[in-house]
Design brief:
four-stranded antiparallel beta sheet, elongated, SecB-like_sf, Preprotein translocase subunit SecB
């Protein structure tokens, strides 16, 4: 099948900060898959529209296993990235599609880019690569909107 390109373009992606730490497990035998599944994952992001340049800037941070109540053994990870996006012919698009591209698709692309970086960082680690589980982007956007209402 021939691919049809989206009007959303990723113009630039940069890794802004990363931190990787290995916390040595006390037990010699650990179910790594189960341990990875129990890691807490926190995601924060900020979207900035540059109307003049017709660009969208998105900064996204992912923290894995760095909860306030302490970290589990294995990997402790933080990555932060920035992306610049543009929607071609945005004036010709329906408002719902434009909002979907501006919020949902940009955040999904950023998380996927950071997911790949997390895997690359951990792949040579003692426990092998950590692959971030799929994220419910819709709930993430709802949570962020709810947080904004409270402030």
């Amino acid at each position: 099948m021939k691919a049809k390109f989206s009007p959303l373009q990723l113009l630039d992606f940069k890794l802004l900060e990363s931190h990787f730490e290995f916390l040595v497990p006390e037990e010699s035998e650990i179910d790594i898959k189960e341990l990875f599944q129990s890691y807490s994952v926190d995601i924060d992001f900020g979207i900035r529209n540059n109307e003049k340049a017709q660009e969208i800037q998105l900064f996204t941070m992912i923290q894995v296993n760095s909860g306030k109540e302490g970290s589990l053994p294995g990997y402790k990870i933080m990555v932060e990235g920035g992306g610049t996006f543009r929607i071609q012919n945005s004036e010709a698009l329906e408002e719902n599609l434009k909002n979907n591209l501006t919020q949902f698709s940009t955040l999904n692309m950023m998380i996927n880019n950071l997911r790949n970086i997390i895997y690359q960082i951990t792949n040579l680690g003692p426990m092998g690569g950590y692959l971030l589980q799929p994220i419910d982007i819709t709930q993430l956007l709802r949570d962020k909107a709810g947080k904004g209402d409270k402030n």
